[in-house]
Amino acid sequence: MPQPTPPFPSLPTSRQVLLNQLKQNAIGLWGEERAAALQEILEQHAERLVDLSSAMPPSGETPTMGWQNHP
């Protein structure tokens, strides 16, 4: 039986892979000069995304409000 598709695409866990993707997106949007100027910000965002993706529950476990956890 095939695995269900997660509701959100998984983020790469490698900071360098994320940084490369962010840089390519920035180059596509604003050009290489502006992307180079944004390098420090892109590095910070890549780090935050890695931190967030490591703290996320598995895709099969989505927190919801239900009678079990509702006052």
Nutshell version of this structure?
With 71 residues, the chain is mainly α.
* Share of residues in helices: 40-55%
- Low-confidence parts: none
Q: How is the main sheet built?
A: none
Query: What global shape is seen?
Result: elongated
Description:
This protein is mostly helical. It has a domain of 42 residues. It is built from 3 helices and no strands. The chain is elongated. It starts with 14 loop residues before the first helix and ends in a 16-residue tail after the last helix.
List the helices and strands and how they pair.
Blueprint lengths: L14 H16 L1 H6 L1 H17 L16
Keywords summarizing the entry:
single chain; about 70 residues; mainly alpha
